[in-house]
Amino acid sequence: MVKIMDMENKLWQSYFGAVWGKVCSIWHNIGGFVMDEKSGEFYADENCRALMGLRENTDYDKFRDIVALNGGGRDLGLPLCIELLDTPSGIAAGIVYLSKEYMSKSVFEGLDIIPPEEFADNIRKAVKECCQPDEFGVRSSSNHSLSVTAGISSGFEVPARLMHAAGFALYEAKAKGAGSICCFDPEKYAKQKSDIESIRAFSELLDKNLFTYHFQPIVSSSTGEIVAYEALMRTKGNIALNPLQILNCAKNFGRLYDIEKATLKNTLKYLSKHQLDFENRRLYINSISSHALDDKDFYAIVNDYGELLEKVVIEMTEQTEISEDDLDRIRVRLEKNNMSLAIDDYGTGYSNTSNLLRYDPEVVKIDRSLISGIDQNPKAQKIVSKMVEYFHSSGYTALAEGVETSEELKTMIYFGVDLIQGYYVSKPKPVLIHDISENIREEIVAYSIEAGDKDKKVFHAED
Description:
Layout: E1 2-3, H1 10-16, H2 20-26, E2 30-36, E3 41-44, H3 46-52, H4 60-69, E4 80-84, E5 91-98, H5 100-104, H6 116-129, H7 159-176, H8 186-192, H9 196-207, E6 211-220, E7 226-235, H10 243-252, H11 256-273, E8 282-287, H12 295-305, E9 312-316, H13 324-336, E10 340-346, H14 353-359, E11 363-366, H15 368-371, H16 378-393, E12 397-401, H17 406-414, E13 419-421, H18 438-456
Parallel strand pairs: 1-3, 7-8, 8-9, 9-10, 10-11, 11-12, 12-13
Antiparallel strand pairs: 2-3, 2-5, 4-5, 6-7, 6-13
Helix pairs in contact: 7-9, 11-12, 17-18
């Protein structure tokens, strides 16, 4: 076993003396060792161990081989030099140091430096193209994988900092997923090192599929009956990330596609297990339209849950434009599988009249920002009432989302919206509820009757 030098050891003292410890503490590029062949023991100071890369379980034979490989007192032109001292038979002692030539040169001198991305890509291509035949010359598989980690710890000499940076790099690579190239960026690390827990949590969330969902009822504005539920992303376990944080991480690490795939697959699995609860109801599933699944992944899900897709309303939520090709592909899938389409957040971002005509949805969800405090905002009332009229004249179903007060509920029912969703009606819950509060349901019916009576009034000229 490797032994740290014992200052009281007579063998050690006879060759290095008391002053050696002082020398090594000043200059870390030199160290010493003593080998006792008779006892099979050797002593190495801390510098020697570090220079030679010795492990704690290195035995006498292993150490002797290392000394021999590095010249054993002969100059082999290596960066690590060993000079043996004059000793009696059975005893070997020497000093280990870095050569002056090596220390005076740059670590990278004479090397062909290529960008790390190019280096990693070359490795990936080589692995992909390397398909070894079996003993009969048959290439049984074209799938290979290889994980390569390499780096230089310059700037992270303090072990605690180095370990933290390594952990950051590891979770960043895992967050980007298999097959990706991840190069550690010190500047990015400096800005985001406090976010390592979020990165770790996001990586674990996707790797272990720790998603869960809450369901918020969507009710009829005339009867208060539940006609659908919206599935809202949540997490389980020790993943303390909210939906916005999850989507931000997914965007930063190029994993929005994986979120889209997990959302559709998980919610349909839930629908499959609770079919009786959806007998006359539908499920709204959020979709990132610009990251729609490719045919392979989509039809694999269709193969498992195809008969349930007629109960699904795909809700486009992303605030970005999508191409005509992507939109055509989505339309074909919806029509082929009897799925419906809803546009979320109408009145904000890309949810405008132009895109409404492009998408031609069944349901239009009026954004919360237009509904908040609408009972006290005459300008918003004019805009939203005209919106609802336009939706109905175009054959769209109008849904008011984010209704949080009785006054907002009354105003939107008076404007003639078809569906209501919001905290005032019912908050999202981890289980499906079969009915909303009886008081709220009666309130919705009363407002609906009032709105109907209001429309039926006849006004004469003298009035």
